[in-house]
Each structure stands twice: as C-alpha cells, then as structure tokens.
Amino acid sequence: MKRIQIASPAIGEEEWLAVKDPLLSGWLTQGTYVAKFEREFAKRHGVKHAIASTSCTTALHLILSALEIGPGDEVIVPAFTWVSTANVVLYCGATPVFADVDRRTYNIDVRDLERRLSKRTKAIIAVHLFGLCADIDTIKKLAPDIPIIEDAACAVGSEYKGKTAGSLGIAGAFSFHPRKIITTGEGGMVTTDNDELAERIRILRNHGASISEEERHQGPQPYLLPEFNFLGYNYRMTDIQGAIGLVQLSKLDTLIEERRKWADFYLQELRSLEWLILPEVPNYAKHSWQAFVCYVDENKSPMKRNDIMKHLFEKGINTRPGTHAVHMLNYYRKRFNLEPDDYPGARDCYKYTISLPLHNRMTEDDYKYIVKILKEFLKELK
Ligand SMILES: *Cc1c(COP(=O)(O)O)cnc(C)c1O
Fold first, then answer.
1. Ligand 1 atom index nearest CA of 84
2. Which residues contact 238 (CB under 8 A, 6 or more apart)?
3. Smallest Cα–Cα separation from 61: which of 39, 33, 86?
4. Beta strands of the chain (E only): which ranges?
5. Is 82 exposed, middle or buried (0-12, 13-18, 19+ CB in 10 A)?
6. Nearest alpha carbon, ligand 1 atom 1
7. Whose CA is nearest to atom 3 of ligand 1?
8. Which atom of ligand 1 is nearest to the CA of 57?
9. Residue 56 Cα, ligand 1 centroid: separation in angstroms?
10. Is residue 63 within 8 Å of residue 78, measured between CB atoms?
11. Which residues are near ligand 1 (CB < 6 Å)?
12. pLDDT digits (tens, 9 = 90+) for 64-88
C-alpha cells in the first residue's frame, strides 16, 4: 500500500545543482550566497533587513538577546506552539508567561493575552501557527508599548491585511526546517526594519565580533582582528544552505499557490463532515498552509481523535496532532507548577487536532483518496 507522508520537502534537481559552486569554492560558511539569500528574502517579505541563522529557534534567541531581555523580565508566548518558542525565553534567563489560544485559529487568544500583561512584560511572541498570521493589530492595541516578536517559523510568504509576515512587529523569525514550506535542511532568518536591532543581531550571530569574517578576509589590513563588545553566539548559516535557500525562495510563490489550491479543496470537500471542524481563515489573512490542521469534535465524531488517526494510518495516511501544549510538557509543568486546565484552549487543541497531509509532493489522487477515506468513516461504522 502507498503511504502518504504528512510532509515532504520540495527539493529537486535545481537545489542539487546549486550547491556545487559553494561546495567547491573553498568558502563553505556564511558568505556571498547567504548574503544574496538575505537580500532576496528581505525583498520578498517587504523589510529592510534579513539576517540568516542556523534555525528559527536561534533566530528568536538572537532577537531576544538583542532586545536585552533577561532575568526579571517576562515574555508572553502562546501555550499551543512548538516548544522552542518558550525555550528561547528561558535561554535569556527571562520568564515565559503563557497565554491561551483560540480553538478555531490556533493562534493566541487576545482576551487571555490581556490578562497576562504585567509591569514586567518586556515582549510578546506572536506565533503565526501553521501559516496563519496572529491578529497583530488587536495585540498592538492591547499593548501599544510592548515590542511584538513574530514567530513566523511556519509563515514564510503569509500575509496579514496585505502586509507580509515578518514585517508586522519589531522583528520576525522564520524556519527552514524540512517540515516548513521552504527548507535549507536546518536554518532560520530574522527580519526587521530596525537598523540598530539588525546591526546588533549581525554581531551577536557571529560570536559578538565587531567585524565579520568576510570583511576581515577581504580587507587590505591583514593584522586586523575584531573587537568583542558583546557575548555572542555562532549562529551562522553555511553558504551551502544559502545556495539551497535561494533556489527554494524562487519557488515560494508557486509552492504556496499549490498549497492554497489543495487547502481550498479540503475546505470544500470536507465541509459536510460535522464532526470535523475545519481551520478558520479570518478575513485579514492570507494563509500559506504550512499545515492543514483540523479539530475533531468527539461528541459528534465516529471515533476518538486517536482512533481516527490510527484508522487513517492503517489506510496509508500519515497524520500528526497539530502541535504541543507547552504548559503540559514535563519540563514546564514541573518548573512552573502548571496544570493542563490552566490553558483549556491549548489543552484541547493538543488533544483534538489532526494535521492532514498537505505538501508539494502530493498528487491529485492523494488528496482525493484522503477525502474519500474521511467521508467513508461513518458509513463503515454503520
Ligand atoms: C518549527 C517551529 C519552530 C522551530 O523552528 P526551527 O527552525 O526548527 O528551530 C519554532 N516555532 C514554531 C511555531 C515552529 O513551528
């Protein structure tokens, strides 16, 4: 039996050919390909600066570090997200304060967010989960003086009221992990319009060095060594990845268009299943569909969520729960003395969501087969 994967990177011959030059050039780490990838990425996302890093996690860490967030500070993060959205706050010695999420958009619940604001709140990380932008304008209204950092790991090419993800807050962080829409194996990107922040992030990414390796090697003063004014990190992307990223970025619009087409197909075809609540797309958003995540209403469904997933697996269809409720993970539960019921929205999203396969290596037959199997559930049980 054929198995339909939940995700599969859209890598082809072009990426394979693109790595030859940087690989043979003798300059393997951050260099001209990364610089070009950054310029193109900034252009596509409508921002002044794009700064490549090793992952979205390190991109977020760079932003928080550059904003000098540290011990005693609080950063609000949604409770339903990938664990690293909260981990990066702890890397800085600050405290993550969770806010609940909305069961229809899976993004931060702005009313709950309002309750979590305090005098110590130094930033809000708004996650654009699965490719749908969080309601940034409402968040800005509630907290006009607090910087908003976008966790845009899933949201390359997504839009909010005609503006691109990554240009909506003080800075954005993107991921190029293979589960995301475009990939460099591992990799990330910071976007920002803020010159000072961009400069600080470039320095922190490169060990805190005041001049970069490229400048040092190209300059006429061989005796020059950089000064180190900050505690930095090595979060540089390799030029091999930069070359892959450039090719991937050139395919982005086509990849998203295709995802939109099949997401619309799911939305249309699965509408009649009253036990399956489909992802909501508010008017302000242009979704990029990094994942197609549905919510099972177990009061109406033929089986429990896990049994549905098991049944789909037996039919050759791989699925996953949407993502984690971070407040329910052992480390966070124990360290911050949290209960599942503290964030009922996140708890339910964790318990009842299913991510259906949607990626750029699926065929029309794959989508039709999945819809057919889902529609046959009730019939088979009768
Ligand atoms: C994937 C993901 C991350 C982490 O991205 P990496 O590049 O793997 O570090 C962070 N936040 C969200 C919402 C994600 O989906």
1. 10
2. 22, 28, 29, 30, 34
3. 86
4. 49-53, 74-78, 95-99, 121-127, 148-151, 159-160, 163-164, 171-175, 188-192, 276-277, 285-286, 292-296, 353-356
5. buried
6. 153
7. 153
8. 9
9. 5
10. no
11. 55-57, 81-82, 84-85, 127, 129, 151, 153-154, 175, 177, 188
12. 999 999 999 999 999 999 999 999 9
Q: How far apart are CA 61 and CA 68, in angstroms?
A: 11
* Residue 59, both tokens: 């991109």
CB 30 within 8 A of CB 213: yes
- CA–centroid distance, 153 to ligand 1, in Å, is 5
- The catalytic residue positions are 180
- What whole-number distance in Å separates Cα of residue 198 and Cα of residue 23? 28
* Helix-helix angle 364-381:239-269, to 10 degrees: 40
Q: What is the Å distance from ligand 1's center to 57 Cα? A: 6
Whats the size of the chain, residue-wise? 382
CA distance 81 to 346: 9
pLDDT tens track for 269-289 = 999 999 999 999 999 999 999
Instruction: Name which residue sits closest to atom 2 of ligand 1, judged by CA.
Output: 153
Task: Report, as ranges of residue numbers, the positions in the chain whose pLDDT lies below 50.
Answer: none
Tokens 């299943």 sit on residue = 273
Question: What per-residue confidence (pLDDT) applies to 378?
Answer: 64
Among 61, 175, 349, 353, residue to substitute to test ligand 1 (most atoms within 8 Å of Cβ): 175
Q: How far apart are CA 369 and CA 246, in angstroms?
A: 34
- CA of 97 from ligand 1 middle (Å) equals 18
